[in-house]
Each structure stands twice: as structure tokens, then as C-alpha cells.
Write a structure and sequence with these properties.
4% of the residues lie in helices and 38% in strands. The protein has 381 residues and is mainly beta. It has 2 domains: 144 residues, Immunoglobulin-like; 189 residues, no CATH class.
Length: 381
């Protein structure tokens, strides 16, 4: 940083200034002067609740700021053109660190710790002077935008995704720390993203008789369709898909899955999630539905397993299944890795997931049970 001073004075005054300047130079004054230098934010990511084009989506942005943000400073998240932030207001936003949530308002006229406002494509979080809000050095911050913001009130509005499939850049500024990162907008099948590197997510079908985590598929699938066809009581069916991630994102990635509804027929009958509608979060051994009369959630159930052996400490070991991937659950992790991946190495770049369906004799007859599964792959650069 350089400052230019212009003065008009007589020669004697000029000589005095030069003498004083020379004194300070010889005294080592320049060594007293420190310059604030911008550094890169780290562990930056934006997880979209829905990555489909033109869909509204909750955004969860996480970053670590080495320098921190002082009281009176600001955090800015700049979204690439194509994202529609027009409906977002402060009540749709939560801002937190590991030490707690910040109270928010539309501006800094009150006593709230921070204000949140959208200006064009920028979300600006300002830590209101004198109200205590700031980010400590090395703090990890989480910004939620949408209905996932629940601290003061529950958010109503969500950012609308761009209408065109592709990889979109975002910029984050926290005080003097900066970062560029990306999200991918896809048709729930293939995700691509790049931050001076590459990120590719591919879903493939599996053939009949493919081993997945100790179970064996009973039918074949495509990247877009899992068809259990006609099921019979007491005869479980298993269908699977292969997930492949190629990236050199330094902090790796996670892949989640979520259904939009229970398997539902046009008559209103449904097949609940494993086990007996309990939406089991900790994977357990498969069990047939209980089939208790007048307890429809026990008539049949549907669960997921993964052969990613080190996922969450190997939680799916031993042919176990979970059921916590409903529309009301947090999306279910089925694959992850903490570093670069090649798209082919088991547990690091490739994993298989399987879905198991079994009914009892009480499951209501219908020819058209259906739902939609959405995979979301999130890299952390």
C-alpha cells in the first residue's frame, strides 16, 4: 500500500520535511508498518438441496476464514448470473459459527449482531458495528439460505437455480480473505464442476446377479430407471447402481440420495421406508416387513445399502440397510472420500448402492407404485 502526499511550501519547510523523513527512515520506521494481505478461504463448499435446472434450492455454504472478519466487516457471496436471488430476504438466511448463531436483521439500525441483504447477485452479511458480531481468525462459518434457515424464523424463499445445465462459479469474500468455488446444475444424473480442476459424477446401471455389500441384485437397472416390476410377498428384490466420482478436489466429496416421496400408487397406497416405516438411520440387518393388520407402514418396506466400506466408519458393513432417505430426512450419505479420486478405485472413486424392496401379503395391490431418487454430489475444494 502506497500513499502519496502533495504539499506546496517554501524550500525551508521542504528541507525540514526531508530531514524528518530521513530520520524516521534511519530509525527503522518502515519496519513498523504492516500490510494486511488477503489469503484464501479454505474448505469452501456450497451444498444444494436440489441441483436440477430452474428449481428452487436451499443452499448451505461453509468456509473457514484464516484471517477472520472484524466487527463492522462483511462477508459477501457473489453468485454467477443465472441464479435468481430476487425473493431472498434476511429471514431466509442463517449465519453461524461453531460457537453459535448470529441474530440477523435487514439492516444495522437495531441491536441484531448482523444484517443480511441481497444486492443484485450478491448476498452481503454485515457484522453491525458495536453489536458484537464478528468471525474469529480460523473460524468456520456456515450460511444457510432457504427453508433450511430456522434460527430466528423458518425461511420461506429459496434461490432459484439457473435454467441451463453446467458448472457455475461463486466468489466468497470474508473481510480480506477470498475464494472462488463452484456448484453444478444437473438433471439429477451427471454432475460436473471445476475450480481450476475437475469434478465429474456419473451414475451407471447394474446387471442382474451383481454383488453389492453382501447382497446380490435380482434384476438390472439403467442410470435413470430402477424397475422392481411385479413383487410377491416374502420375496425380496434387490436393484443397484454404480456411482463414479473423478476429481482432484483436495478435500474430496460426498454423495447423498433422497426420495421425493414413498413408493406411491395412484390409489394412494404406499410402500414405506425400512424398517416398517421407521426410516432407520443406523444401518441394521435386513428384516421382512412385520405385516400387522391395520398398521399399513408394516405391509412393505424399501431400504438402501452401500458398499463404500469406509463411509462414516464403515456403517454399512455386514449387509445392513438404512431407511432415512425420505423427503423429510436430511439427504442420506451413500458415498464419500476425503481426497482426490479416480472414478474406478473402490471406496475412493467408485461405490455401488443397492435398494431392497420386500412386501407382505397385506401390501395393497396397485400396478403403478413410483417415486424419484435424487443424488447430489458435493465436492469440497
Amino acid at each position: 500500500m502506497f500513499n502519496t502526499f502533495i504539499a506546496r511550501m517554501g524550500y525551508k519547510a521542504t528541507s525540514a520535511v526531508l530531514i524528518v523523513a530521513l530520520f524516521f527512515w534511519l530509525s527503522g520506521l518502515p519496519s513498523w508498518i504492516g500490510l494486511a494481505e488477503a489469503v484464501s478461504l479454505i474448505n469452501v463448499s456450497d451444498t444444494l438441496q436440489d441441483s436440477a435446472p430452474s428449481n428452487p434450492a436451499n443452499n448451505t455454504i461453509v468456509f473457514n476464514t484464516p484471517t477472520g472478519v472484524a466487527n463492522g466487516g462483511a462477508v459477501t457471496i457473489a453468485f454467477q448470473s443465472g441464479f435468481n436471488l430476487a425473493s431472498i430476504v434476511f429471514s431466509d438466511i442463517d449465519v453461524a459459527t461453531t460457537s453459535g448463531e448470529f441474530s440477523l436483521a435487514a439492516d444495522c439500525t437495531g441491536s441484531e449482531m448482523a444484517s443480511a441483504a441481497v444486492v443484485s447477485q450478491d448476498l452481503i452479511i454485515t457484522f453491525c458495528s458495536g453489536d458484537g458480531g464478528l468471525l474469529q481468525a480460523s473460524a468456520t462459518a456456515t450460511i444457510k439460505i432457504g427453508t433450511n434457515a430456522t434460527f430466528q424464523t423458518t425461511g420461506v424463499n429459496r434461490i432459484v437455480n439457473p435454467s441451463t445445465i453446467g458448472s457455475y462459479v461463486l466468489f466468497a469474500t470474508a473481510g480480506i480473505d477470498v475464494a472462488e468455488f463452484r456448484v453444478a446444475i444437473v438433471n439429477n444424473v451427471t454432475v460436473t464442476a471445476s475450480v481450476s480442476t475437475s469434478f465429474t459424477f456419473v451414475i451407471k446401471g447394474l446387471a442382474t446377479s451383481t454383488a453389492v455389500n453382501g447382497d446380490t441384485t435380482t434384476g438390472s437397472t439403467s442410470p435413470n430407471i430402477i424397475n422392481f416390476s411385479t413383487t410377491t410377498p416374502g420375496s425380496a428384490k434387490v436393484m443397484g447402481q454404480q456411482l463414479e466420482v473423478t476429481t482432484n478436489a483436495v478435500h474430496g466429496f460426498i454423495v447423498t440420495v433422497q426420495e421425493n416421496q414413498n413408493l406411491l400408487s395412484s390409489s394412494g397406497a404406499d410402500i414405506d421406508l425400512f424398517k416398517d416405516g421407521a426410516m432407520t438411520a443406523i444401518p441394521i440387518a435386513w428384516a421382512s416387513p412385520a405385516g400387522i393388520l391395520d398398521a399399513e407402514e408394516t405391509y412393505g418396506h424399501f431400504g438402501v445399502t452401500s458398499d463404500d466400506a469406509d463411509l462414516n466408519g464403515g456403517e454399512f458393513s455386514g449387509t445392513t440397510y438404512a431407511g432415512n432417505f425420505s423427503a423429510t430426512n436430511t439427504p442420506r450419505q451413500v458415498f464419500s472420500h476425503a481426497g482426490p479420486s479416480d472414478g474406478t478405485t473402490q471406496n475412493k472413486g467408485m461405490a455401488k448402492v443397492a435398494y431392497k424392496l420386500e412386501i407382505s401379503a397385506l401390501q395393497e395391490a396397485a400396478p403403478d407404485y413410483t417415486n424419484t431418487l435424487t443424488y447430489v454430489a458435493t465436492p469440497t475444494f
